[in-house]
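Example for tutorial group B:
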C-alpha cells in the first residue's frame, strides 16, 4: 500500500470533512477500551503498565486487521480504511475550529466561553479574565499542535519506510489517549497513570522540540523571537514538552501567556487582545500546513 496515497487521503479527509461521528471514531473506541481496562486493573504502576501494553497492542493489531480485511474485499477499500484510521490520529480541522469558536465566545460572552474552555484546557476557568481566557486558548492551540497533529505525523513518517507508518501513528494515538484519561496525579490515578503519562512525555519529546522551528517558520519576521523565547522559557511549565511550542508561539505573537499560579511565558509581552486569537490561528494553521507539505515531500522522495 502506497504511504503517500494513504497520507494524502487522510489529510484531505481531515481538512475537508473533519471528525467522523463518535460511534465510528477509532479514538472513541480506544477510550472505551481504556475505561474498561481501568476498572479491571489494580491502581498500581504495574496495573498502569498492563493497561498501557494492552491498549497499545490492541490498537495496533486492530488497525492492522481492519486494513487487512478491507484489502481482501477490495484493494481500494483497504486504502480508504488505512487513510480513515490515519486521519483519526490527527485533528487539524477540529483543533482550529474549536479554538476559533471559543475565541469568538470570549469576546461575545465570557461566561459562555469559560464553560467551553474545558474542551481545550484542564485548568479552572471560573476566575479567568478575558486576557487569561485568550491566553488559555493560545496555549492549548500551540500545545495541541504537537500532540494532535505533529507527533502522529512524525511517527507515520518515521516508520513508513518499514511499512509500519499507520501502526506507529495508531500506537502514538493510543499513548496520547491514555495520557488524557489516566495521566493525572489524583489519588485514584497517581499510580496507574504513571506509565501512560511518562510514555506520552517520551513520545512527544522530539516532536515538541521540532515544533518550535515550524512555528518560527510560520512567522518569519518573528522567527528569532520565537526561537529565543522557546529556549528561554520552555522550562517554566510542569510538562517537559508543552513549554516548547507554547513559548515559541508566545514569541512569534509577542504575547504574554499566563496560567495563573503556574507559569508565565514571555513575561515582557503584551496581554492577549481580541485580534491575537486570529493571529494565533493563522500561526498554528500555517505550522500545520508546513507539517503536511513537508510530509508529502518526504513521502514523494
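The residue assignment follows.
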Amino acid at each position: 500500500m502506497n504511504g503517500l496515497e494513504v497520507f494524502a487521503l487522510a489529510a484531505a479527509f481531515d481538512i475537508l470533512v473533519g471528525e467522523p461521528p463518535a460511534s465510528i471514531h477509532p479514538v472513541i473506541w480506544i477510550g472505551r477500551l481504556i475505561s474498561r481496562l481501568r476498572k479491571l486493573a489494580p491502581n498500581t504502576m504495574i496495573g498502569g503498565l498492563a493497561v498501557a501494553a494492552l491498549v497499545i497492542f490492541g490498537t495496533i493489531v486492530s488497525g492492522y486487521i481492519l486494513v487487512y480485511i478491507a484489502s481482501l474485499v477490495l484493494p481500494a477499500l483497504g486504502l480508504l480504511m488505512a487513510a480513515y484510521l490515519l486521519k483519526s490520529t490527527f485533528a487539524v480541522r477540529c483543533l482550529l475550529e474549536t479554538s476559533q469558536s471559543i475565541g469568538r465566545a470570549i469576546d461575545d460572552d465570557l461566561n459562555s466561553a469559560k464553560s467551553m474552555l474545558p474542551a481545550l484546557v484542564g485548568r479552572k476557568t471560573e476566575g479567568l479574565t478575558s486576557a487569561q481566557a485568550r491566553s488559555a486558548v493560545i496555549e492549548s492551540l500551540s500545545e495541541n499542535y504537537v500532540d494532535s497533529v505533529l507527533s502522529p505525523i512524525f511517527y507515520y513518517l518515521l516508520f513508513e519506510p518499514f511499512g509500519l507508518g499507520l501502526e506507529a501513528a495508531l500506537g502514538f494515538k493510543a499513548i496520547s489517549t491514555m495520557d488524557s484519561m489516566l495521566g493525572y496525579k489524583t489519588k485514584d490515578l497517581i499510580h496507574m497513570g504513571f506509565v501512560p503519562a511518562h510514555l506520552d512525555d517520551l513520545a512527544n519529546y522530539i516532536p515538541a522540540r521540532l515544533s518550535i522551528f515550524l512555528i518560527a517558520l510560520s512567522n518569519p519576521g518573528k522567527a528569532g523571537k520565537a526561537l529565543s523565547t522557546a529556549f528561554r522559557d520552555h522550562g517554566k511549565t510542569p510538562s517537559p514538552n508543552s513549554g516548547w511550542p507554547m513559548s515559541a508561539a508566545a514569541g512569534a505573537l509577542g504575547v504574554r501567556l499566563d496560567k495563573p499560579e503556574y507559569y508565565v511565558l514571555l513575561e515582557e509581552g503584551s496581554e492577549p487582545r481580541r485580534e491575537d486569537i486570529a493571529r494565533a490561528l493563522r500561526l498554528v494553521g500555517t505550522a500545520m500546513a508546513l507539517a503536511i507539505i513537508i510530509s508529502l515531500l518526504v513521502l514523494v522522495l
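The two ends are 16 Å apart (CA to CA). Compare this with the pattern of hydrophobic and polar residues in the output above.
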